[in-house]
From TrEMBL:
It comes from the Bacteria. It comes from Dictyobacter vulcani. GO terms for molecular function: O-methyltransferase activity; S-adenosylmethionine-dependent methyltransferase activity. It holds the Pfam family Methyltransf_3. This is O-methyltransferase. Keywords: Methyltransferase, S-adenosyl-L-methionine, Transferase. The lineage of its organism: Bacteria, Bacillati, Chloroflexota, Ktedonobacteria, Ktedonobacterales. One of its GO terms (biological process) is methylation. InterPro entries: Cation-dep_OMT, SAM-dependent_MTases_sf, SAM_O-MeTrfase.
Length: 228
């Protein structure tokens, strides 16, 4: 029997991913509505994928999350996945710099039935994070905003967490460049490289990166806070 070509292997990986998505992470009307609202508002399609959304829910459930913090809301797609892992008295705060995005998020949260347990705060995350110290600790923190600030977001995430909290950051593979050190990197890539290094070396964290987006070329950095 002949070896599969690289195109056949890519197609097989794609089929497996679609099957996992369909079986374990189907999108209901609320999630599909958030994607449509984003398209209608002309927002970029840079949200996480359904498997990542379900993974966020699995992790939120694993740490019995009652308080979740998200940095970077876009249209509320990841926020809906996260909010649905909360108990009815749980709370998700999502930080978003763009007021137009925030309006779309609020409408999509309401449409998805999670308006009661979610709050969108508008502003630059680095300005808003210091105002959250009395509202934590957060059980899960999801970082998915401007990449250059990821190292500072990590500092804040640890400050706002407890032992057992889970800190997740998106786009921490980026075709592999997020693990490289070169002289010619832009500020976003430097932020990602530093984030991976900081989470790998920080003795307070246990960390792994999973390549689980865009045909394994991007993915999530997942860190558990062991102690402060
Ligand atoms: C990749 S999108 C978030 C995607 C979303 N988490 C999802 O998967 O559905 C990044 C979002 O972060 C917002 N953002 C960028 N810089 C920010 C900052 N400094 N503070 C807060 N939000 C920021 C952008 O406006 C954008 O809506
Ligand atoms: Mg992202």
């Amino acid at each position: 029997m002949s070896e599969a070509t690289s195109e056949q292997q890519a197609e097989q990986r794609h089929q497996i991913e679609s099957t996992i998505s369909r079986l374990f992470a189907p999108e209901d009307a609320g999630l599909q509505g958030a994607l449509q609202a984003a398209r209608d508002a002309g927002l970029p399609e840079i949200q996480i994928n359904p498997i990542q959304g379900k993974l966020l829910q699995v992790l939120a459930t694993a740490c019995q999350a009652r308080k979740i913090l998200e940095i970077g809301s876009l249209a509320g797609y990841s926020g809906i996945w996260l909010a649905r892992a909360l108990p009815t008295d749980g709370h998700l705060i999502t930080l978003e710099i763009n007021p137009e995005h925030a309006e779309v998020v609020r409408a999509s949260f309401a449409n998805a039935g999670v308006g009661d347990r979610t709050e969108v705060r508008v502003g630059a995350a680095l300005d808003l994070l210091p105002t959250l110290t009395t509202e934590g600790p957060f059980d899960l923190i999801f970082i998915d905003a401007d990449k250059a600030s990821y190292p500072q977001y990590l500092d804040w995430a640890i400050k706002l967490s407890r032992a057992g909290s889970i800190i997740i950051a998106d786009n921490c593979v980026r075709d592999g460049v997020a693990f490289q050190q070169t002289a010619t990197m832009d500020a976003d890539t430097i932020g990602l490289v530093q984030y991976n290094q900081l989470t790998r070396e920080d003795p307070r964290l246990t960390t792994i990166v999973l390549a689980n987006d865009n045909d394994y070329t991007d993915g999530l950095n997942i860190a558990v806070v062991k102690a402060h």
